Amino acid sequence: MQRNEGTGSSNNTQSTGSFLVDRRSYLKLAGTAAGSAGLLSGTAAGFTRRGIQFDNTVDMVADAGCDPNGNEPCDAEIRDAADDYTLLKFPAGEYKLTEKNYIGDKTNVGFVGEGDVRFTVPSDLNKKVLVVDGGTGLLFENIDLDLRASGATPGLHFGASDDLEIHDVEYIGQGIHPNSDPRGEGDGNPQVTNAFSPIVRSEDGNGTITNVVAKNDGRMGAYNSGDGRVGVWIGISHKGTIRLRNCQFEGFPNNGLYCSRTGGVVQVEGGVFRNNDITQVRLSSDGSYVENAIINADLDNSDSPNPEDTLNTRGVRFEAGRFGFGGAQVRDCDISIVSTTNSNGAVVVGSDGADHTVKNSRISVEEDGIRGFYAAAPTGYGSRDPPPEPHTATVVDTSITGGSNGVEAIRIDQRDDSVVADCCINQTGTDRDGVKMYNSPSNVVKNSTIDVPGQQVLSPGCRVTTRNLSASGSCPVPNKATGDSLPRELSIVSNSGRFRYQLTVSGDLGKSTARGATIDPNDTISGSTATGQGGDGGVDSYGFSGEITQMDVDGDVTVYLDDEVIPQDKYLGNVLSFYGTGSSAEYTFSVSGELSGYEGLNGPDTISGSSATGSVSSGRDRYAFAGEVTDISADGDIDIYLNGNEVTSAELLPNVLEFDGQGQYTSYEFSVSGSLTGYRGINGPDRINGLSASGGVGSGRDIYAFSGEITNIELSGAINVYLNDELIRTGSDHTLKIDGKGSYTTYEFSVSGELDGYKAINGADDIDGSSATGNVGTGRDIYTMGGNIERASLNNRAQIDIDRSAGTISVRGTGEYVSYRVVVTGDISSERGIGYGDEISGNRASGVVTTGVDTYRYTGDIVEATMDEDVSLTVSR
User: Fold this and answer.
1) 481: phi then psi, degrees, rounded to nearest 5
2) What are phi and psi of 36, to 5 degrees?
3) Which of the ends of the chain has fewer CB neighbours closer than 10 A, N or C?
């Protein structure tokens, strides 16, 4: 905990030996001495603490022989004492750690400080001093980490499959690596150890982390190409749920909380996160959120030595790198950008971010040119693919205030079905606009006060629905109408008498205040189904996503769907409309669910099951249907609308086939089993004849949309073919991808056939005949190759070596705990070094290594070689 030593400021201290103890530390002493009622129960023979069962207790001074004065190292004593169902108790004092201490595969092991306890480290130590991982049941409580030795940047790594409990920990001092220079100048790109790395490895596992404090006050600008020091790193190995409660992380050069590269759940509840470079809090996955937190960038009040070198002080950033996770939320937070050298937003959805939400929060921006909320176009960063849909951005019950000049309070780019609702925007600076939706169809801005000197809403490249906007007034009070934040609206309005209804949707569902509806507690929602009733003149409204899959209404009512009146007996969830433009045009389509005529059908318009054919000239034909469009074609000049949004037949077809030229003109031919139409780039020699197409590309792209399956495809040369964004054919036999996961990895390999660079081969990457060498950090290097991998080596925290001539795969530990996985096309078997934690299943092997070598024999070809937190090599055939 923070003490009056160097950075503390409390005057309410009392002397106790060599320490000065503040009130928080004094309460820790008293609480531990009293037995921590509620946390520790049972008898000496068997007891629980924080819900974890222990059978043995080791006094680390009296029993294990540690020096509590910090003069002699305690590393070996800790490693020897840690065992299953064992609690290590540290009496008040200092305990010196001088190396990385790995404790693996333990069940219910704990570390508890009795009073004021801290681990100290020597100068220039840059490693994880305590790594406990591979087991289940892990407690670390009331022990601080003192990093005030010159150049020390130690870290703590705690992993468990379940029952991870970390409480009352403070990092004392500034973690500044001696070679970390601002913006990478001089020697300024070392890999610096992250402060805290918690992991829950089981999907059903849980971890609770409370009162962890790190006022790092480190060197700003020392992002070090992603290798700078992070406050909390939670990466792809985390699978379960971690809750961080009432924690504080300040002054880190490479994110305060970096928790966006995991599919596991990270829930941040309360706490303070301020003046970290890059981002204060970074999340991505569904179920993750930051709630009731104070998030702040105020570099005028930073304790870092060089706040002027800060690169980017975002408040919250949603992104997932190449992993494609989405769904994280900001809830009831106070976020302020007060003073900074640079920030691209208080809340930012990156180009790798999928769908994310801000609700019931208060955002203040005082610096010019900085947005309160910015959702970048979901195009993928650099060579990464775009994140998977949905890409919606939702801002609801949120205020954005302050005196910032220029740009907009909210900007959302190329994100369909986004919503800004029940917000208050009051920006007093000059040239400040309210909400800008760029090229984002089907977006809604409603029920909000937007008081800005510029325009309330801008919508270049798209149409945005605006409803019930005020230019002045008090901020709206948050209500329980959760449906107001969802993209679609359904209202049931009584014409006379009472009414009853039940409806089900395919997505999310919540009550709404649309059309003046009130929130009636007698109307109930269970999952995606609503059941309710209303009186004469009453209105019930809902917001939802997806489609309505079922709706039954009893009574004289008018039903509105997205501001359009819908006959009850015709509505099935979606409306498809064909508008004539003057000359006769024919169409045919099929859907996956029920289909019904809605309006304008006559003469040649026919429905057969879930398919329809028809023609239209100057009028419109409209159909209601459930499910999705599975096939569609149109012949002639015709406009098509789906649920009120203009679309093309190509956009409705379920599959997209892309031919990506590689510079040399290459011809192609293919056939499909369903409908086929050109999408983009179809011109010149490109021809469509029924269910077949032929054409050619040089350096451009030809893109087609179709239904059914590909029945034939032929290529004349080197060309890359993508089906629904997945690479399915190349001019070479295979594609070899090396994916970095954050830390620096070197590699080399050779193949039996031809080898060529495909994407991101630059810098230190080099091809020599059929061999290649290179390195990767957070990006992806992609090669095209013929034949098979003959030899390969990946070098990071461990080393994977592949030798096809010897038929061996070796994984060599270098001292750190590393999990790995290898997959082949043939058989794989144990050679030597395979032990507990290593497993062979069919054509794949997985395991862990710290020191020593795990060696396997294999037949066939390499499919994958992965170090879970570092790098993966995959071959696509």
Assistant:
1) -80, 80
2) 50, 65
3) C
347 close to 375: Cβ distance less than 8 angstroms: no
37's tokens:
């009622």
Per the structure block, which two tokens stand in for 276?
Answer: 């970290």
For the chain (length 877 residues), average pLDDT per consecutive 10? 31 28 30 35 66 96 96 97 97 96 97 95 96 97 95 97 97 90 74 96 97 91 90 96 95 96 96 94 97 90 89 96 94 92 95 96 93 96 91 96 94 96 92 95 94 94 93 56 71 90 84 74 82 87 82 87 73 82 92 86 90 91 88 91 84 91 86 91 88 89 92 83 78 76 88 78 82 86 85 93 95 91 94 87 92 93 89 83
Q: Tokens 């900007």 — which residue?
A: 411
**Structure-token pair, residue 824:** 């082949």
Q: What are residue 420's DSSP bridge partners?
A: 395, 445
Rounded-to-integer distance, Cα 271 and Cα 277, Å:
18
The answer to whether residues 301 and 313 touch, using CB atoms and an 8 Å cutoff, is no
Cβ-defined contacts of 728-733 (< 8 Å, 24+)? 730/758, 730/784, 731/662, 731/666, 731/784, 732/756, 732/784, 732/785, 732/786, 733/785, 733/786, 733/787, 733/877
Task: State the DSSP code for 156.
Answer: E
> How many residues are listed for the chain in this entry?
877
417: left (phi over 0), alpha (psi -120 to 50) or beta: left
Q: Is the distance from CB of 517 to CB of 541 less than 8 angstroms? A: yes
Q: What is the DSSP string of 209-261?
A: EEEEEEE----TT--GGGTSPPSEE--TT--SEEEEES-EEE--TT-SEE--S
Cα-Cα-Cα-Cα dihedral of 55, 58, 63, 68, to 10°? -170
Task: Find residue 669's DSSP bridge partners.
Answer: 694, 714
Amino acid at 164: L
Q: Which residue's structure tokens are 């669910």?
A: 593
Amino acid residing at 642? L
Which tokens in the block code for residue 433?
A: 């606009």
- The position carrying tokens 């290798």 is 227
Tell me the whole-structure pTM to 2 decimals.
0.55
Please provide the DSSP assignment of 753-779 as one string: S-EEEEES--TT-EEETTEEEEEESSS
Q: Which two tokens stand for residue 468?
A: 């019930």
Residue 5 has which token pair? 């030593």
Q: What is the pLDDT of residues 243-278, one digit of tens each?
A: 999 899 999 999 999 999 999 999 999 988 999 999
Between the two ends of the chain, the Cα-to-Cα distance in Å is 55
Sign of CA dihedral 90, 143, 191, 160: positive
Exposed (0-12), middle (13-18) or buried (19+): which is 336, by Cβ within 10 Å?
buried
CA distance 275 to 532: 49
